[in-house]
Design brief:
The protein is mainly alpha-helical and about 90 residues long. Helix content is about 40%, strand content about 5%. It contains three helices and two strands. It starts with a helix and ends in a 7-residue tail after the last strand.
Length: about 90
């Protein structure tokens, strides 16, 4: 990746850049390319390719209640409450 390539991409994208932004984009694109290159070192030997992301179904989990009902505790900490509700000052007439 070089400065001329960045300028060509910006021209084709109809973007106008100054030198500082052009250098920042060049640096960012180099980082992205390095990250993509690092994927080639991943071990994919026993992994079959997906041709469509919808081939895999989402895992399903049973819903489990994991917390207690702390309504009374929350209402105790409120400045004002009325049975099951927080009381707040009226904002709109």
């Amino acid at each position: 990746m070089d400065d001329q390539t960045v300028r060509t991409i910006c021209y084709l994208s109809r973007l106008r850049l100054d030198d500082e932004k052009s250098k920042k984009i060049l640096s960012d694109l180099d980082t992205i390319i390095e990250m993509i290159d690092s994927l080639s070192s991943s071990n994919t030997e026993n992994i079959s390719p997906l041709y469509n992301p919808l081939e895999e179904t989402a895992r399903k989990f049973n819903d489990k209640i994991k917390s207690d009902n702390n309504k009374e505790l929350f209402l105790e900490n409120a400045p004002e409450s009325d049975e099951n509700f927080f009381l707040v000052p009226k904002v709109v007439d």
